[in-house]
Amino acid sequence: MAGEATGVNWIPKPADATGITADFYSDMKTKPTEGMLRALLNAEVGDEQKGEDPTTNALCDRVAEMMGKEAATLLPTGTMCNEIALRVHCDPGDEVICDRSCHIVNFEAGGPAALSGVMINPLDGENGMFTVDQLRPAIRPPSRYAPTSRLLAVEQTTNLGGGGVWPLKQLTEVAELAKSRGLSTHMDGARLFNATVQSGVSARDYAAPFDSLWIDLTKGLGSFAGAVLAGSRAFINDAWKLKQQWGGGLRQSGYIAATGLYALDHHIDRLADDHALARSIGESIAGMPNVGKVLPVETNIVIFEISDRGPTAAKVVAALLRHGVRLGVFGERTIRIVCHLGVNPAAGSLLCRHLPGALQAD
Ligand SMILES: Cc1ncc(COP(=O)(O)O)c(C=O)c1O
Question: How many angstroms separate the CA atoms of 204 and 63, rounded?
């Protein structure tokens, strides 16, 4: 794969305004490729709120079909997909069961409580993934006193779990148990295609036991906005009502949808390159000074701990910034590195050249 469509040959630009040439902070740091921008310029558009945007309709039909669901809707962000899904599935006072590391618990500003009035029952899975035996006792029997266990939510891949991929069997087992006990099921598929590329399992197979799920057009797919939420027609009708209430109805969103359609055609297979780069960075890091645990690198994310002898994560990240390399601080001694369309092996080499020194900064 070559050229701008894949991003593989994309060399970090000389220092931009912020001086960062290799930005591993997140896969949200991508910029649209030329091909994507051409698709945007040529998009046919209309009023999305009225169902009149042909490109958005085409994207939603395509995602619904890929996921084996009846319908889908485009939303500005994945966070909004999660929050709308929670509100559709739950009533105030209900309980959502998910891993403690989930985005809905840690990065949505308390949205589940503020917008849906739900409680979270967090499980301590391994790398963001729990087993059916952990889930079973967490589902509450019906009681006048207890909150109602209403929704099982999972992330595929797991973000703070280091990009871990739920094995299909484990994922299906937890979803089937939840459904057999009357819970609905929701999947945060911000990085679902990282999982499909890593495992060879189709999105449709991962999606099958879930009542709702969504994919991000940003992150691995490399667009600048948008996420698509899919489910039954009834679920999407309810989601549309909230989308309108919460101000997420769009107008000429075909410009966004065109980048999404382009990404579905051109940016899925290339995720393997991100995974290979993450793996090689992870292997290098394991041998660096003051490095503690490195989470297994399954996809595009590397999470590692700095040992007690080393500096804090904030100091390491600050030292690397001086070399134009940005990583993420995800705890006092935890660093996250994410590979994506906007970084390449040259950026990886820059990172691996300067990280050992940063790990010994004081
Ligand atoms: C697992 C996961 N879910 C949800 C989100 C939120 O997506 P968005 O940035 O599109 O709101 C993110 C963003 O990083 C994420 O990693």
Answer: 10
